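Sequence of Erythroferrone (Agelaius phoeniceus).
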Amino acid sequence: SSHSLCQPEREEMFHRGPGLNLTSGQYTAPLAGFYTFSSTLHIARREPRRKRQGWRGSRLRVLICVQSCCQHNSHLESVSQLESSGDLFTISVMGTLYLQAGQYASVFVDNTAGSPLTIQSGSDFSAVLLGV
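Predicted 3D structure, token representation.
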């Protein structure tokens, strides 16, 4: 049947929710429930190649944390080993978190190498309410 195509009845069904603040990079939950979060960051190194000997074995952590609290179990995390050759890394983190109404989630980068990094355009951060 034609219903299996699942066409949206109106365009507003796909609008961006009011919870995402692009200035602060925070998504604030409009209501309590389980949200699936995903972020893909394209990260570039801004350091001359001759200074890179300390990179090998360094780790880059990308986290999505609730209320800026990344210490306990209310966060998502992805860890990537950094090789000394590349200039551009793509790291993704995805998962489900429970947020109370009014709580926010945001993306953090833990740069253990301590070298200057730039988040490139094309990176993204999204949140979808799964259910209450």
